[in-house]
């Protein structure tokens, strides 16, 4: 009986090595994405913006997050203002994006989200976000 299971040790080691290699490759690609992600600093000028994330790939820069609605305000009238700055603080580009209100029965109109996509420019070093109510 020992002879029959003798070859299983090799098989398990073989699958373990394949799993380990895949894990290392995925970890390395994730490390590369994180280094791209952290190359742009983020500053928020409003306490209503939460869970803001900034990412980039080779061609685009993505900014997304959530907005909490203050009393007496309507999210359908809110605009996210994003300024992308160079190292000296000069504005490279500005974007105004609408807030998408959450439409679930439980949270109707109490919070929303936003998503901004711009072409990546290597001169962009920081992003300033604010919210404006119309």
Give the name of the CATH superfamily of the largest domain. Immunoglobulins
Count of domains = 2
**Helical proportion, percent range:** 10-25%
Strand order of the largest sheet: 1-8-4-5
Q: Care to count the β-strands?
A: 8
CATH topology of the largest domain: Immunoglobulin-like
Strand content: 35-45%
Q: Mind summarizing the main beta sheet? A: 4 strands, mixed
Q: How are helices and strands ordered from N to C? A: HEEEEEEEE
**Secondary structure category:** alpha+beta
Name of the CATH first level of the largest domain: Mainly Beta
Question: Outline, from the CA principal axes?
Answer: globular
> What is the correct CATH architecture of the largest domain?
Sandwich
**Rg:** 23 Å
Number of discrete helical segments = 1
pLDDT averaged residue by residue: 77
Low-confidence stretches: 27-38
How far is the first residue's CA from the last residue's CA? 79 Å
């Amino acid at each position: 009986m020992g002879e029959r299971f003798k070859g299983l040790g090799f098989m398990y080691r073989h699958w373990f090595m394949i799993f380990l290699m895949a894990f290392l490759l995925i970890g390395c690609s994730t490390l590369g994405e994180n280094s791209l992600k952290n190359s742009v600093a983020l500053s928020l000028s409003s306490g209503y913006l939460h869970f803001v994330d900034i990412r980039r790939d080779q061609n685009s820069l993505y900014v997304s997050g959530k907005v909490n609605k203050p009393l007496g305000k309507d999210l359908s009238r809110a605009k996210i203002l994003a300024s992308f700055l160079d190292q000296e603080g000069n504005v490279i580009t500005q974007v105004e994006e609408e807030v998408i209100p959450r439409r679930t029965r439980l949270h109707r109109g109490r919070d929303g989200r936003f998503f901004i996509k711009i072409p990546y420019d290597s001169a962009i070093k920081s992003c300033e976000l604010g919210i404006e109510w119309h």
